[in-house]
Amino acid sequence: MRILSSLAVAALLFGTPAMAQDDLDPATMASQDGEPEAVADQDDGPLRGTVTDDSAWQDLGIAIAAFATNRDVATPANSSGTEALGLELARVVYNDLRFNGLFRPVGPDALPRPSYDQITAPAFGTWQGRSAEMLVHGFVRANDDGRLTVGCYLYDVALQTELVREGWVVAPAEWRRAAHRCADLVYSRLSGEDPFFDSRIAYIAETGPKDNRVKRLAIMDSDGANHRFITNGQSTALSPRYSPDYSRIAYLSYVDGNPRIYVYDIDSGRQQLVTESPNATFAPRWSPDGRYILYSMAVSGNTDIYRVRSDGSGRPERLTSGPAIEVGGSYSPDGRQIVFESDQSGAQQCYVMDADGSNQRRISFFGGRCATPEWSPRGDQIAFTHIAGDFRIAVMNPNGRNMRQLTNAWHDEGPTWAPNGRIIQFFRTERNSGDTSIWQVDLTGDNERRLRTPVGASDPAWGPVLP
Prior knowledge:
- The protein is mainly β.
- Helices cover about 10% and strands about 40% of the residues.
- It is globular and about 70 Å long.
């Protein structure tokens, strides 16, 4: 039985053209074993009028029932069988949708389990009796070639109509991606916004005592599952960033004893030093097209921002040149501007410059300091660490106006955006212990959630939706 796990294979399985609508009827799927496919939806557009501003989000009650199966058989994805796997699939969908402040989902453990035949013919009366507004049905089927077919359906219970359907044929190791795709389908159909659940996060895994902490580069799914260490901890790793195509990770490493920027190739495991300079380099950021990497370099006590081609060719280009300390940098989505932090005004503040380093201007004028700015993928906000006594996560417009604090803890920092620009992830440090953990909050600031990781975690970097 074949288990396919690489990103390249995943892209093949998820990226093939859609099938005809009738192909997603569980009653007819039995004839299509072995065909890698992404199965068509019948998307006729989102439910308009739900997301014009934060106050307009609807709080929808969604029933997410266990996915049914036509035949309960063990698979590499779940030795207990496809029936148990169907329950797990629904649980992943439920957990994805429950923490974004838009929906009131009810998970499969509190609901009746539909039969396989009911997937396309829901018992609407049952769900109306439970006051569900929306209903998610699904199925999972083990194919003869070892892969799984997963179908996902969204129904309007009051209207008794199907809103959208889609399905995927996946390797057993990729079953969670099918669940995330289902959650993305529901999210996008009901909100009209881009999805973000089928994505991954790079971060720093922390173990050991506060004064001797081991920091390793690690990656995981957007919900914290499928954690994987990338480095072994023999040298400290910091501030990772996924390349836009998920093939590489830029990060700071002390592998030779000095802080320098390396690019780690995920498939080959090889890594490349970004510059051959003996000076300390840090705070890497990719350009939106993946062609360049921004980084900071300290030379004789002065730190400036540089840009270098991500393949290592050519000479680095210095973008800032003043006597102040300029650090970091985050591109706007169109790649034309960069937001960065500088102390040229006498205190740490946020600035914006054109991509070639020209037209620098300060944008933060509120009380406190502004650090680690990160431009939203939608271009309409900049997230940053607001230092005013405590460290908090805040957002502002690209012109520095309308600053809003989203968190209120002792030490939150390092914001990174979800691919759709609605959720921000950051890391929280506990007073006294120094223990760190990854959290996320939506743009309202009302929905905060801790992401469970096997060890302490910091410096999250949220990648785009998987290809």
